[in-house]
Amino acid sequence: MESPRQTTSPLLPGRWRRYLPRLSCASSFGFKTSVWSELGGSVGDLGTYIPIVLALTLVNHLDLGTTLIFTALYNIITGFLFGIPMPVQPMKSIAAVAISESQTHLTVPQIMAAGISTASVLFILGATGLMSFFYRFIPLPVVRGVQLSQGLSFAFSAIKYIRYHQDFATGKSGPARPWLGHDGLILALSALVFVVLTTGSGESIDEAEPLLESREPLRRHRRPVRRVRILSAIPSALLVFLLGLVLCFVRDPSIVKDLKFGPSKIHMVKISWDDWKIGFVRAAIPQIPLSVLNSVIAVCKLSADLFPEKEVSATAVSLSVGAMNLVGCWFGAMPVCHGAGGLAGQYRFGGRSGASVLFLGIGKLILGLVFGNTFVKILSDFPIGLLGVLLLFSGIELAMAFRDMNTKEESFVMLVCAAVSLTGSSAALGFCSGIVLFLLLKLREFDCSSRLHKSGGSNDIDSHLLP
User: Fold this and answer.
1) 45-71, pLDDT tens digit by residue?
2) Coiled-coil intervals in this record (predicted)?
3) Any idea where the domains of the chain sit in the sequence?
């Protein structure tokens, strides 16, 4: 019989048949995982996906239909290969440069050149085994610091989405939202309360039930356990997203007339030498360290925390990011990666297997084939406050990965790394600061231990201190 590690190794074809029992509902309210749970988790990362895709489409004229089709295929393939809700998210640094750079906005060929350049580096790191080397030797407190900074950054953006109008063309916040209206504060706060009531602090029924039963006799807590089970079975994120789609048509019924059916025409992107230079210097250079840290290292660490029985190797994740963009970017699909925030969001809302991203991929594929690029007309009317609610819970779930920092030294390194990352808006800068601080602390311990050895032990030191 194979060991659990072997049977759950990523990229193993035998894993595919494991989805059949996972997709069955054991009851109408679900248990460990169900169709409703996976559907809820499938939209858990849309709080970051939709705003960035919408901004790139409106500002940089990215073809939404092509991006939907390719990211759908990525979702479906990664769902089968990894067996966990492995997200497919935009490369955020490239998107930030393309949208809000003080110079002229990046063109589509320049964005694609940046994505291909970043993907090439990650593919080489994965193929040579260097990514696995980095994963093994990077200190855990430094990784936790990167995760904490990314999670808090998502949470800060989410609060802005909820409180203020957003202009994605400039990347700036506008005036405060009114209390009433189709995208008012009341709507966002109501969705926030609904998500808290249905998902609590993020614990699953398997985690909540033993806590309830261990404090008092079981008969006293049958009703609370049943209530938690029922609430946890509600796909809150999916319902919030569907509400947003309905409100799109309520806010502007005329968008129905503007919709054109049929997929976008997929064509090769012509990239000139100047496009390569501009895309690499302005967008790929800041994206590469973020992809290494958050798209590979942090994703593998977080997946080990959330799914300890399913080993996801840094080599496989790095090769996956490289392969996706080395194919899709040549056809104008948005540069993407696997993000720890997306994984945290999908897990937060119920995703427990590859079926979660499989459902998401099917949904994207249908939208891309049916509506093509005209689907942007719907997304442009989507209530941003509701996206802020989804993004808030995703960010908090990612930030809470720091809970395994058990010593003051680990917490110190993590917090300094997170603070530098947030202040400098650079995960790479925070990472370097964390590595230096970690090495200094280890050097300090080595110096103390060497002195202790030379003095003959602690008893000798104590004797010197005596009068």
Assistant:
1) 999 899 999 989 988 999 999 999 999
2) none
3) 4-407
> Residue 167: what are its φ and ψ, rounded to 5°?
-110, 95
CA gap 212, 229 in Å, rounded: 12
Per-residue pLDDT band for 447 (boundaries 50, 70, 90) equals: low
pLDDT digits (tens, 9 = 90+) for 249-299: 998 888 888 888 899 898 999 999 999 999 999 999 989 998 999 999 999
Angle among Cα 181, 182, 184 to the nearest 5 degrees reads 55
Which residue bears the tokens 């593919």?
Answer: 123
Whether the CB-CB separation of 255 and 246 falls below 8 Å is answered with: no
Q: State the Cα–Cα distance between residues 33 and 22, nearest whole angstrom.
A: 7
Q: Which long-range contacts (CB under 8 A, 24 or more apart) does 207-210 make?
A: 208/232
Which of 95, 49, 41 minimizes the C-alpha distance to 68? 49
What is the Cα–Cα distance from 329 to 49, expressed in whole angstroms?
Answer: 17
- Portion of the chain with pLDDT greater than 70, in percent: 81
Alpha-carbon distance of 328 to 29, in angstroms, equals 39
Strand (E) or helix (H) holding 402: none
Classify residue 345 as exposed, middle or buried by CB count within 10 Å of its CB (0-12, 13-18, 19+).
buried
The residue behind tokens 């009317």 is 381
Residue 5: how many CB atoms within 10 A of its CB?
10
Q: Which residues contact 232 (CB under 8 A, 6 or more apart)?
A: 30, 198, 199, 200, 204, 205, 208, 350
For residue 214, what are the contacts with CB-CB under 8 A and spacing of at least 6?
none
Q: Is 174 helix (H, G, I), strand (E, B) or coil?
A: strand
Q: Which two tokens stand for residue 401?
A: 């990965």
Tell me if residue 6 falls in helix, strand or coil.
Answer: helix
- Measure Cα distances from 249 to 1, 242, 376, 377, 380 in Å: 55, 11, 13, 10, 11
The residues with which 167 forms a beta bridge, in sequence order, are: 172
- Provide the H-helix boundaries in 408-454: 408-424, 427-454
**How is residue 241 written in tokens?**
């997203």
DSSP codes joined into one string, 332-351? TPPPEE--HHHHHHHHHTT-
Distance CA 335, CA 340 (A): 16
Distance CA 204, CA 193 (A): 18
CB 416 within 8 A of CB 145: yes
pLDDT category, 228, cuts 50, 70, 90? low
* Residue 184: both structure tokens together: 């008012």
What distances in angstroms separate CA 414 from CA 83, 293, 341, 356, 409, one per listed residue?
Answer: 30, 14, 17, 31, 9
Whole-number Cα distances in Å, 5 to 9, 309, 318: 6, 7, 20
